[in-house]
């Protein structure tokens, strides 16, 4: 059996059942106690009344008892009164207060010496002499097993005691207790049953959510949890889960299409190489033909290599712990390095690079920023006509470093602009611009910029050229003309 | 046979075109979809090798529009290999579908099959009288003996044999056996035909004066 004590439903049921039990038990016990107290109070009142009447009977008899020797009532034996307890003769009205028919009240009267003087016929045998009363009163009530007795010990004279057998009441009390227990048990059972049903209903959506989530994770990733009514918490939970599924599905789709795109991109250069080689091998050829084939293969394989490196870069960017190194950089140095790397290509296309760089220092991963600039320069040079001029400008803007790369090339169409940073997107859609462009350069560039906490924007109009603007938080940057930042203070434990 | 190759990857286009020419085909090539469609509609190619991912008009669009005008056999080349794409291609009117990277030999064999099917031929070996033409090896035998034909001569023989019983005009010969860059000298084929007759017998090819040629 499953560990049922770990189920919410069972736990709720257990706690709720416990609570209900405690409440019912408390209530029942209180009711029973109250009833009992009430009853005892009645009995005590009766005892008091009878005590009073007994007292007056004794009193009216008392003097006559002292003068019993002078009386010839047959009620009294010739022996000493102390050896044979007598019934007190009472007035007809008082007689009815004692006896079996009047609730079983009895009385006993002792002399101050402790000998029984009077007793009622229904008094139980062997009633022990009462203990001394507590200070402050002369009469007291005691409970002796099932007998409840009230006694009065005067400073002088007879001790009187009135009592009653509570057996009936006790029995009734026990009966009431059982009745309460059964009633309580019944209510508890009903309550538990109702609670079980209620918790089942409340938790049913959880089962539905589980089932739906299992489907979504399994073979139906486009489905979502359909829970719009029901308790708010579970509806909220469904909404949150659906949102998470959307995001996960988005990530998976992007991943899948990225992988698909990547493999497509690789298929073409592989096809080139394969066709070239297979065609070359079909018949004997002159060395120049072989050389041509080998050059073409080399070109294709370099494309593959560039693609692989770009893909690895992107994959690394995608991984969660891709925080760039932070080192102090000087903007001018970085730009110069990028321009130098580009010298050959620029010369090939007779492009001119004009720089306008303010002295700015900032913290970033120098190598990556160089790559950003080379990417932008590469785009500018390759998509501009020959002998174009490209402007690179950079400076400080508030807390940011700003860098712009502007060309006067053909520009980018408006419908392409929102997409150019996407992976494998090529605005000209023709692979004939294959200067090693695989559509990943801008995606990588944006990835680097964003990893540094910066932004990259493009403005362009067809026929008017293109400008890329990169903004990076300068980190601990300051202009070279400012005074240097204070040296960090290192506290060394003495 | 004349083939049109529409492929936007220049190295692949060049490689394919050259391989096909070495197989004896007349080959035209283009890297643009619209230009490819234009060419395919305006000339009677024996087969078109069509890449799916093209700039401008995509391969799908070229295929759809071509099919409205011509029944030219089309072999699609693509980097997409899902079953769905294959089905789309084949249902869209393509006659065959190859994914890149492909084996060159397989491409050549499939092209041969396409062309053969288009001519209503069941077998790759054609027998006419005592002459046997093996289209896979591009060899011709007469009475069991292999006959040496030049590439052009073989092309003419194969073309006429696959259209056996049909009258073949000179224009058709120009259209199907020369690519667009070759200049058309009006009697180049007469020379070929006469050479063929010398090698395979005078009644191998009949002449219809003023109209054209025919293999009965």
Polypeptide structure, described:
The complex is a heterodimer of chains A (494) and B (216). Chain A has 494 residues and is an alpha+beta fold. Chain A has helices at residues 8-66, 92-95, 167-217, 232-281, 287-318, 331-341, 343-348, 366-382, 441-451, and strands at 106-110, 116-119, 139-144, 147-152, 159-165, 327-330, 352-357, 361-364, 389-397, 400-407, 455-461, 465-473. Chain A has a five-stranded antiparallel beta sheet, with helices on one face. A five-stranded mixed beta sheet of chain A has the order 7-9-10-12-11, with helices on one face. A two-stranded antiparallel sheet of chain A has the order 6-8. Mean pLDDT of chain A is 79; it is low at 63-84 and 476-494. In chain B, the strands form three sheets. A five-stranded parallel beta sheet of chain B has the order 2-1-3-4-5, with helices on both faces. Chain B has a four-stranded antiparallel beta sheet with strand order 6-7-8-9, with helices on one face. In chain B, strands 10-12-11 form a three-stranded antiparallel beta sheet. The longest helix of chain B has 15 residues, at 104-118. Chain B starts with a strand and ends with a strand.
């Amino acid at each position: 059996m499953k560990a049922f004590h770990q189920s919410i439903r069972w736990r709720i049921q257990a706690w709720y059942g416990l609570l209900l039990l405690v409440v019912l038990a408390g209530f029942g016990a209180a009711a029973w106690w109250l009833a009992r107290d009430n009853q005892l109070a009645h009995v005590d009142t009766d005892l008091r009344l009878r005590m009073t009447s007994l007292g007056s009977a004794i009193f009216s008899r008392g003097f006559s008892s002292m003068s019993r020797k002078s009386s010839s009532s047959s009620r009294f034996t010739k022996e000493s009164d102390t050896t044979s307890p007598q019934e007190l003769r009472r007035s007809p009205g008082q007689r009815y207060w004692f006896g079996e028919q009047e609730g079983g009240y009895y009385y006993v009267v002792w002399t101050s010496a402790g000998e029984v003087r009077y007793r009622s016929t229904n008094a139980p045998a062997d009633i022990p002499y009462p203990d001394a009363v507590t200070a402050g009163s002369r009469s007291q009530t005691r409970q002796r097993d099932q007998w409840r007795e009230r006694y009065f010990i005067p400073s002088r004279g007879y001790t009187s005691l009135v009592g009653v057998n509570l057996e009936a009441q006790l029995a009734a009390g026990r009966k009431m207790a059982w009745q309460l227990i059964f009633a309580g048990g019944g209510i508890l059972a009903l309550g538990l049953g109702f609670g079980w049903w209620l918790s089942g209903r409340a938790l049913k959506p959880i089962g539905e959510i589980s089932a739906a989530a299992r489907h979504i994770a399994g073979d139906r990733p486009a489905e979502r949890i359909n829970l719009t009514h029901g308790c708010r918490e579970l509806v909220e939970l469904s909404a949150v889960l659906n949102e998470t599924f959307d995001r996960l599905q988005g990530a998976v789709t992007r991943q899948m299409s990225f992988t698909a795109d990547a493999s497509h991109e690789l298929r073409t250069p592989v096809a080139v190489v394969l066709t070239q080689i297979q065609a070359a091998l079909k018949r004997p050829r002159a060395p120049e033909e072989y050389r041509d084939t080998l050059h073409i293969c080399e070109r294709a394989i370099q494309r593959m290599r560039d693609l692989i490196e770009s893909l690895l870069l992107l994959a690394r960017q995608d991984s969660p712990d891709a925080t760039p190194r932070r080192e102090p950089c000087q903007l001018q140095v970085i730009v110069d390095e990028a321009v130098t790397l580009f010298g050959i290509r620029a010369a090939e296309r007779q492009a001119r690079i004009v720089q306008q760089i303010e002295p700015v220092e900032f913290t970033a991963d120098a190598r990556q920023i160089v790559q950003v600039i080379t990417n932008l320069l590469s785009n500018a040079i390759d998509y501009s006509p020959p002998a174009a001029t490209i402007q690179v400008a950079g400076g400080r803007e508030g807390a940011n470093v700003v860098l712009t790369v502007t060309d006067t090339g053909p520009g980018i169409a408006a419908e392409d602009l929102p997409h150019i940073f996407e992976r494998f997107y090529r605005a000209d859609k023709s692979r004939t611009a294959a200067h090693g462009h695989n559509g990943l350069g801008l995606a990588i560039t944006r990835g680097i910029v964003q990893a540094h906490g910066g932004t990259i924007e493009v403005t362009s109009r067809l026929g008017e050229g293109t400008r890329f603007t990169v903004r990076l938080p300068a980190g601990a940057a300051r202009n070279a003309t400012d005074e240097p930042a204070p040296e960090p203070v290192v506290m060394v434990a003495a | 046979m004349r083939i049109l190759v529409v492929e936007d990857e220049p190295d692949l286009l060049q490689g394919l075109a050259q391989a096909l020419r070495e197989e004896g085909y007349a080959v035209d090539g283009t890297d643009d979809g619209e230009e490819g469609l234009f060419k395919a509609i305006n000339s009677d190619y024996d087969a078109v090798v069509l890449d799916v991912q093209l700039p401008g008009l995509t391969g799908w669009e070229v295929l759809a529009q071509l099919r409205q005008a011509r029944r030219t056999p089309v072999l699609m080349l693509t980097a997409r290999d899902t079953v769905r794409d294959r089905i789309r291609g084949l249902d869209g009117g393509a006659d065959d579908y190859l994914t890149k990277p492909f084996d060159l030999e397989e491409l050549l064999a499939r092209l041969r099959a396409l062309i053969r099917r288009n001519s209503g031929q069941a077998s790759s070996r054609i027998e006419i009288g005592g002459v046997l033409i093996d289209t896979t090896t591009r060899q011709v035998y007469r009475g069991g003996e292999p006959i040496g034909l030049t590439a052009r001569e073989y092309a003419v023989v194969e073309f006429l044999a696959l259209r056996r019983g049909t009258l073949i005009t000179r224009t058709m010969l120009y259209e199907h056996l020369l690519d667009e860059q070759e200049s058309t000298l009006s009697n180049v084929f007469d020379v070929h035909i006469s050479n063929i007759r010398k090698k395979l017998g005078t009644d191998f090819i009949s002449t219809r004066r003023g109209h054209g040629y025919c293999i009965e």
